[in-house]
Amino acid sequence: MMPPRLQMVLILCLRLLSRSEAGQFSLLVPSDPVDTIVGTDVILPCQLAPSQDISSAQVRWSRVESDSTVIMVKKGVESGGLGGRATLSHGGEGLTVGNVSLKITRVHVSDEGTYVCFVRTSSYYSQENLVLKVRAVGSHPVISLTEPPDSWSFSLDCSVSGWYPLPQLSWSDPHRQDWTFSAETETAQDEQGLYSVSSHLQFPRQKDRQSVRCTLFLEHTGASDHSEILFTGAVFPVLLPWRVAVALLALLLVAAVGLGGGLLWMSREERRKRKEARDECLWLREEFDAGKLIPKTEWSAIRDCAVDVRLDPDTAHPGLSIRGQGWKVRGWEARRKLPPSETRFTAHPFVAGMEGFPAGRHYWEVELGEKPYWDVGVAQESFPRNRRVPLTPREGLFALGLRDRNELWALTDPRTRIPPEEIPRRMGVFLDHERGVLSFYNVENRNLIFKFEEKFCGTLYPVFCPGHDPADLVICKLGGAATVQTTLTQEALSALREDLVDVKLDPSTAHSNLDVSLDGKRVHFLEETRRHSVNTYRFMEYPFVLATEGFTSGTHYWEVDVGDLQYWDIGVAKESVERTRRVPLIRSEGIWALGLRDGQEFWALTDPRSSLPFDQIPRRMGVVLDYDAGILSFYNLESFKLIFSFEDKFSGRLYPLFCPGLRGGPNLEIPDVHVRSSHRQEECQGKESRPLLS
């Protein structure tokens, strides 16, 4: 059986960054095996993400075990199909939205195995595996007396039939002593693949053993069932014929009653399990089609976009109290006298975040607990703050609202009622500005609650209304320092630059062929070796140089201009790194770095090396060291994308490390970065859309 539906996890194997590139997609399939019963219909889910029309694409379902094609779809035309039992569950209509789920009718035992969902478009392809587990519920265990009992023992058979997978039979007495080792077991499998098992036991007569139990156990599901037979007159000095007849009659009567009850139980149990399987499949299909199931990897990618939202006291309604350095807000009973402000909400009890989002992807979480009234969402900069207007997207507000503790609404026009079971205690808000999507998630079960789809214009600000109860509405700190962003926005880069450190090169560590500028900001390779004083800090074998200062904790950011250099290494090194002899440039030797060779081979210096995309070779690079989280990240500051991230457990002091190559050429430079704080006026003028490169 599949686990409870809220624990059911879908896997998204391709990196979600690929979605932003034209034509690329991922396939969503269940991570756990799909469980079904022989004779029922089953759907093997497979969905493109993001959804797109693939009517002209090639779709193929195949089996791993036999390397055979189950079904093939080319330009909307199906072929194959398990003798007509397999087809796309949604047919051609499903292709228009990227649903290529496979439906198998009248499931056979032979259908069990690993299936491959494969989709190829004109520009891209992807495939994922999923496992189908088949089971059949057979007969109740039946114990029978195979021959008249003698004065020493009973000859017993226990048999079951129609089961899959293979069940196990065991024998035990009232003292829980296992008699299975004394039994002889025979197994048979019919043409349909169903198993029959018979176990024969010669059970000794003893006064303290007046019954014996035969137990059936399915290792695959953990299910079990049993039958028990009672012996009357366990000790017979003489086995008279009439007593034998009476005993046989009694045993046959017990067996008949057991068989009848077993058949009735089997019928009811099979109907119940089939209903459970159908309901489970139906739920999966509904949740899958509704897009409510959020894979762990997709959830992780969403949370990679985490931002620190702080409340702006200058926008808070006079009836609200901002607490906890801008992380908490609660409603007051009386309005306070505050200085006038054009940004302050006076008509609605709202407060906005300090920073707005003119573009990009952003995620934050709000702790709501048992609050009976709240509003959470985003508002356009143009949303009226000093007059009452309908709380609708038309006025520039996109939010969810709770009323009277159990009425949850999406503030659409008209309002959309959301089922009470969706009311969250902790809610995640994900804004994808470019795609025009604002999503709300229940953080406890990763379910999508509601999604606005609009064409957003201008800057959007997080907004909050805590209601009038005394409990705080709390904005959660997501530990952004330990989060690796895969795509930078202006705000994300500004946040990184808050941890900017003034890196200067240490000439006393520089290889003899390196020339370090007097200000410690530039270095290049010299063809002639220079004479330097001998010290234990200088690199003798590799053309490396370290920074003057190292780090043992905290988060630190610096930038490097490599320009058109065809050979370089950039990263960090431990203070104890080997400097007088050649060692592998890997983390076990105390080096974490990226390297370019001859302008063509771009590597992360892992063990073995990790090849990096040629189109991500940077001219200017940002380096983020989060020592405590054990993360070292490199960003291309032209494409604003993550190049590579090392994850390790750092120890000792780490120094920024640089290598400008092995041939004379341009300088490798550590630029001066002028950190500019964003202002709302600049955002209104659209200046924030430009990269903050000095």
UniProtKB/TrEMBL annotation:
Transmembrane spans: 242-265
Coiled-coil blocks: none
Annotated signal peptide: 1-22
Highest taxon above the source species: Eukaryota
Key words, A-Z: Disulfide bond, Glycoprotein, Immunoglobulin domain, Membrane, Signal, Transmembrane, Transmembrane helix
The organism of origin for this protein: Atractosteus spatula
GO cellular component, one term: membrane
Membrane topology field: Single-pass type I membrane protein
Lineage, top ranks: Eukaryota, Metazoa, Chordata, Craniata, Vertebrata
Location relative to the cell: Membrane
One family name in Pfam for this protein: V-set
Full protein name: BT1A1 protein
Keyword Transmembrane helix assigned: yes
Annotated family: Belongs to the immunoglobulin superfamily. BTN/MOG family.
GO biological process, one term: regulation of T cell activation
Domain Ig-like: 4-131, 141-230
SMART domains in the record: IG, IGv, PRY, SPRY
